[in-house]
Specification:
There is one protein chain. By secondary structure, this protein is α+β, with helices and mostly antiparallel strands. It has four domains: 106 residues, no CATH class; 122 residues, no CATH class; 138 residues, no CATH class; 48 residues. The protein is built from ten helices and 26 strands. The chain has a seven-stranded mixed β-sheet with strand order 5-8-2-3-4-1-9. A seven-stranded mixed beta barrel has the order 10-13-12-11-17-14-18. Strands 19-24-21-20-26-25 form a six-stranded mixed β-sheet. The longest helix has 29 residues. The chain is rod-shaped and about 225 Å long. It starts with 54 loop residues before the first helix and ends with a helix. 14% of the residues are buried.
Length: 591
């Protein structure tokens, strides 16, 4: 019972007895045995035909190949997007979406070569390949708060993602990401226009556009105009308000508070809080006699400072000329109007001073801006630089026909002056032909200039006269007249004349006091003389024929009598004048 398992003897062959080798051979020389030599030998079996066991790996191989093909077939292009910062972006997680549909995924994020930004490598889906054009836009959607409202709140849970807006152009694989999302989507109906202004002011991207206090659009952005002197505002007006934009539409700023005081009291008008803080633009289209067509996209309008300045209408297209005047420009200031026969067509923009090294003189250039749209003759259907070139060609044609510029006075009280354009074909075409980027318009002297030239010529004539000699002679004449007037001879003559006048007055008084008037006596003497002359005795007094009317002596005596009468009347008039105005002896009788 207590025998160990290890003491069990090995199995023996059938021919062996319990006592060991029965052959009598030495057990030490026999080969070792395992006990398995008597087992039957295995015969290998070769299966025939397809075995079901291989079906599973073959199926797995087919599925793997199909998935690989599907992956390669659906693999889209790889693109690069350049951003200033990678805030909110995670490699391998951030998605690219279009209208909330995933179209790609961020693979890697790395810094660019100059360390000014980051390069985001994105693998797009194959279906999104048609969206990858030059004008396509990418931006990071993250929570944002502005005056327009709060956006991107869903990214607080799902994380930031990159939004794509397909655009036109050639296929591209490199894009510049936007730091600020676009205000208007590409597929939103409406119209895009351009406003031109001297300065940006409080306006910015996203500032509202109003039509009769109704929000009708927004400002998309701003750029510097090609002339580097004004700013272009790009705006979008939604449908259906974009159909209200016509050729005569006018835009003005509405930011701030409009305060007016009148007989009706104080009126305060403000726009919305958004326009009050960030500025805004309003537009309107006045009624006209002729119907205006609806303006197409990218048309340029002028932006006014306020609605009140619209009465002095300004157009967006402007061409610049330089004027050189040979007269003083005193009274001419920047902003002075440029008129053509009383109609304003532009304004003065600059008055400078240049030194001419060749003639060692100073030259005063005056820059003017002409708005060709004010004149029908200068209206063209071109846009941009082609419109400016066409307007310059038409103005040059008018210059060749006699268009000239001259200075005129708008108010003699204030002395303000303006530039007047008019046709003067009789004036020769003269230009200084000075080098510059603006064409020169010929000028002519104005009315004040002509008067000034006439006065200058008169002064030069007076300066050429011997005024000193004339003054000396006049001074000597006055001194002689003074001696004559104040001399004793004139005083004695006046006293003698006064005595003679008194005696003559007494004589006339005595004659008037006689019983028989002097006139009757004279008539009697005349009648007696007539009778004497008609007597038959022709030898009276020994003077026969002396009183014959046909005798020469009689005619001479009549003439002498008439002259004595005239002399008496002249002496009487002279005496009366000397008594009233003795100074007339020196200065003559007043006219």
């Amino acid at each position: 019972m207590n025998q160990s398992v290890t003491d069990t003897p090995p199995p023996t062959r059938p021919d062996e007895g319990p006592g060991g080798d029965q052959s009598g051979e030495n057990p030490q020389t026999a080969p070792p045995t395992t006990g398995y030599e008597s087992w039957p030998e295995a015969i290998p079996y070769t299966p025939r035909g397809f075995q079901l066991v291989w079906l599973l790996p073959l199926l797995a191989l087919l599925i793997g190949g199909w998935l690989a093909y599907k992956t390669l077939d659906e693999k889209g292009p790889d693109i690069q997007i350049h951003f200033k910062t990678a805030e909110g972006l995670v490699a391998g997680k951030t998605r690219i979406k279009y209208k909330a549909v995933e179209v790609g995924q961020v693979q890697t994020i790395q810094l660019n070569d100059d360390l000014s930004g980051v390069v985001v490598n994105v693998r797009m889906q194959r279906a999104a390949e048609p969206y990858l054009r030059q004008e396509s836009k990418f931006w990071v959607v993250r929570p944002r708060m502005s005056l327009r409202g709060i956006s991107g709140l869903d990214t607080l849970v799902s994380g930031a993602h990159i939004e794509i807006e397909p655009g036109p152009g050639n296929p591209s694989r490199t894009f510049k990401g936007l730091e600020i999302p676009p205000v208007v989507q590409m597929d939103e109906p409406g119209g895009k226009y351009i406003l031109q202004t001297d300065a940006l002011g409080s306006l910015d991207t996203g500032s509202p556009i109003y039509y009769r206090d109704i929000p009708a659009g927004e400002i998309l952005g701003y750029t510097l105009a090609p002339n580097k002197r004004s700013v272009y505002l790009h705006l979008f007006i939604r449908a259906p308000y974009h159909t209200l934009v016509q050729e005569n539409s006018r835009f003005w700023r509405v930011s701030g508070v409009d305060l007016s005081i009148s007989a009706d009291g104080i009126k305060v008008k403000t726009e919305s809080l958004q326009s009050l803080l960030s500025g805004g633009v309003a537009f309107d289209t006045p009624d006209t006699v002729r119907e205006k067509a609806v303006i197409q996209n990218d048309h340029t309008f002028w932006l006014y400072d306020d609605k009140a300045t619209i009465t002095d209408q300004t157009y967006a297209k402007r061409i610049v000329f330089v004027l050189y005047f040979n007269e003083s420009v005193r009274g001419l200031s920047v902003g002075a109007p440029v008129e053509f026969r009383g109609i304003r067509v532009g304004k003065v923009t600059e008055i400078g001073m240049e030194y001419d090294t060749q003639n060692t003189t100073f030259r005063i250039p005056v820059l003017i801006q002409i708005e060709p749209e004010r004149m029908d003759a200068l209206r063209t259907s071109h846009e941009g630089e082609e419109a400016d070139a066409a307007a310059y060609d038409l103005m040059e044609a008018l210059v060749q026909r006699g268009l000239r510029a001259q200075l005129q006075t708008s108010s003699y009280l204030t002395g303000q002056r303006f530039v007047e354009l008019d046709m003067h074909p009789e004036m020769p075409l003269k230009r200084d032909n000075m080098p510059g980027k603006f064409p020169e318009m010929p000028t002519m002297s104005g009315s004040i200039g002509e008067i000034t030239e006439s006065i200058s010529l008169l002064l030069k004539t007076l300066q050429s006269m011997p005024l000193n000699g004339i003054a000396e002679e006049l001074h000597g004449t006055l001194k002689g007249a003074n001696r004559t007037v104040n001399g004793p001879e004139l005083l004695e003559a006046i006293h003698s004349l006064k005595g003679a006048t008194a005696q003559l007055d007494r004589l006339l008084t005595t004659l008037n006091q006689q019983p028989v008037p002097l006139g009757e006596r004279v008539n009697g003497v005349a009648e007696a003389a007539q009778k004497a002359l008609t007597q038959d005795d022709k030898s009276l007094l020994g003077l026969e024929g002396m009183f014959n009317p046909n005798a020469p002596l009689h005619y001479n005596m009549l003439e002498m009598t008439q002259e004595l009468s005239a002399t008496a009347r002249a002496v009487r008039s002279f005496i009366e004048m000397m008594e009233a105005k003795p100074e007339s002896l020196l200065f003559g009788k007043e006219k």
